[in-house]
């Protein structure tokens, strides 16, 4: 586990000078015997030396950390266990100054940051640190931590400046007194009454090498996309009147990429057959798209020195024609949702758009798979299913099974001759089961209804080599009043669904016959 180390501006680091305590007088009874047994008065004792200040200051930007700056959110320590935090000298675990567990370190998150009070032990290291803070030689605080995965946020402003916001710290390991500031100027003040040293500084000490590389792996939210999304929200809440900041297509507004891309890439979809198909983005409304196909006849030819490479005697591509269709749908939005500023109305539109895309993809992909392009077979037993799987389909295919709810329920009751269930657990499959080693995907009966003769429909094969989905990424929307009771957005999505290789899938009708399960 890699620890991040940060130094803190406005640390307000103070060294509290020990104050002498009054000497202890002897008891009265002792005074009476003073002439016979004199008891000297106890000498004055000093209170412990203390340091205090801020280890973390909220919402305070760091120096440039190699292309970005960093701030810590006020909620970053919520839920964090601080019971094992140590105070160290320069992050050195052999030089412990105080600890929460021992009661010598108190950590208090407040409106400004993480405030600390440390009672120092009477050791050479602690005394040296105290003296250096008092003299101004040490004037910075630091903290060592790690971050929850995905809890930080990256933003880029209009000037291209990138800021990382730490929203949740996973573990806080130590707070330290350090020497090297990341800011060019510091503000050191002295309180003449108690001779405390007041240090206002923040810096980053020993910044871990490789953070720049980690930063490039993060998704940076571009401010332009945010502006488009805000404009799209204004467009919705104004019932289509406000279009500033949005591209338009005729009378419709173009839905921002930030909204459309996650939908079309199925990032939030768990039930869309397009994730198993070959999906291509096209810029034209129609044409031909070459898709690489499997071909066992394609080989590498022997080549003599200086000789030309012989032509490959095999067709390496399937030329798939496409004709993108315009598909319209409705996203209903009530006045309450539109007028309530607390509602994430863009998120509501995205969720409804995802459902429309899912339903459209599933319906049209099933139309392709059940078309006359693909071979049809009947099965009344597990032996029939095995033959289709083992013989009828090319072993080079990445095979799977698509079954509806009724067919899955029937398969789930079948056993082989040794009493073992036909469906075997497979945690990588969408249904959690596999048939003959291939994952099983269960589809709603509404999407894949039973056959008219009562048999169960199944599709065996490689969907990625069977179906191509063509999309045009531009999605448009316009405000519409559907009827006297309903209003919302009319959205336009452009897509097409075409078969690729006719031998990549087989339609199976599984009958509940007497031979089933044997």
From TrEMBL:
Q: SUPFAM superfamilies from the xrefs?
A: Major capsid protein gp5
Q: Which keywords does the record carry?
A: Hydrolase, Protease, Viral release from host cell
> Which residues belong to any copy of the Phage capsid-like C-terminal domain?
253-505
Domain of life, per UniProt, equals: Bacteria
Matching entries from Pfam families are given as: Peptidase_S78 (PF04586), Phage_capsid (PF05065)
**InterPro entries associated with the record:** Peptidase_S78_dom, Phage_capsid, Phage_capsid-like_C, Prohead_protease
GO MF entries:
peptidase activity
Q: Which residues form the Prohead serine protease domain?
A: 47-191
Region (Disordered) residue ranges read 1-49
Bias (Polar residues) occurs at 35-49
Q: Where this protein primarily resides, as one coarse class?
A: virion
An example GO biological process term is:
proteolysis
Q: What is this protein called?
A: Phage major capsid protein
Q: Which organism is it from?
A: Limosilactobacillus reuteri
């Amino acid at each position: 586990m890699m620890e991040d180390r940060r130094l803190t501006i406005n640390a307000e680091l103070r060294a509290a000078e020990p104050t002498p305590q009054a000497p202890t007088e002897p008891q009265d009874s002792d005074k009476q015997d003073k002439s016979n047994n004199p008891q000297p008065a106890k000498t004055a004792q000093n209170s412990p030396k203390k340091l205090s200040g801020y280890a973390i200051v909220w919402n305070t930007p760091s120096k440039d950390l190699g292309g970005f700056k960093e701030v810590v959110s006020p909620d970053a320590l919520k839920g964090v266990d601080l019971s094992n935090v140590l105070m160290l000298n320069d992050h050195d675990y052999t030089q412990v100054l105080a600890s929460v567990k021992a009661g010598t370190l108190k950590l208090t998150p407040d409106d400004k940051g993480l405030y600390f009070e440390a009672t120092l032990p009477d050791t050479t290291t602690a005394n040296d640190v105290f003296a250096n803070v008092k003299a101004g030689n040490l004037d910075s605080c630091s903290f060592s931590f790690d971050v929850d995965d995905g809890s930080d946020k990256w933003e880029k402003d209009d000037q291209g400046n990138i800021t990382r916001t730490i929203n949740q710290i996973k573990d806080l390991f130590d707070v330290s007194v350090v020497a090297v500031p990341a800011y060019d100027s510091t503000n050191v003040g002295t309180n003449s009454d108690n001779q405390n040293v007041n240090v206002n500084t923040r810096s980053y000490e020993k910044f871990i090498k490789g953070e720049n590389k980690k930063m490039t792996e993060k998704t940076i939210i571009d401010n332009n996309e945010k502006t488009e999304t805000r404009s799209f929200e204004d467009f919705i809440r104004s019932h289509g009147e406000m279009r500033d900041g949005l591209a338009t297509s005729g009378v419709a507004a173009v839905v921002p990429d930030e909204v459309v891309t996650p939908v079309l890439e199925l990032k939030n979809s768990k039930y869309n057959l397009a994730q198993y198909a070959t999906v291509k983005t096209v810029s034209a409304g129609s044409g031909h798209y070459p898709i690489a196909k499997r071909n066992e006849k394609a080989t590498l030819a022997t080549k003599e020195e200086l000789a030309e490479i012989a032509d490959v005697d095999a067709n390496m591509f399937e030329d798939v024609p496409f004709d993108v269709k315009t598909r319209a749908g409705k996203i209903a939005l009530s006045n309450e949702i539109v007028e309530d500023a607390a509602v994430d109305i863009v998120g509501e539109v995205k969720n409804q758009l995802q459902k429309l895309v899912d339903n459209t993809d599933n319906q049209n992909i099933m139309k392709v798979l059940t078309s006359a392009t693909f071979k049809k077979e009947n099965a009344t037993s597990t032996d029939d299913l095995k033959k289709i799987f083992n013989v009828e389909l090319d072993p080079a295919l990445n095979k799977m099974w698509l079954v509806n709810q009724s067919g899955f329920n029937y398969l789930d009751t079948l056993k082989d001759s040794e009493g073992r269930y036909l469906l075997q657990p497979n945690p990588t499959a969408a249904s959690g089961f596999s048939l003959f080693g291939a994952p099983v995907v269960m589809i709603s009966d509404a999407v894949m209804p039973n056959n008219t003769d009562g048999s169960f429909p199944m599709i065996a094969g490689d969907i990625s080599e069977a179906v191509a989905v063509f999309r045009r990424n531009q999605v448009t929307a316009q405000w519409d009043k559907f009827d006297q009771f309903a209003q919302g957005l009319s959205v336009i999505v452009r897509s097409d669904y075409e078969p690729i290789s006719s031998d990549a899938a087989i339609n199976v009708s599984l009958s509940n016959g007497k031979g089933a399960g044997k």
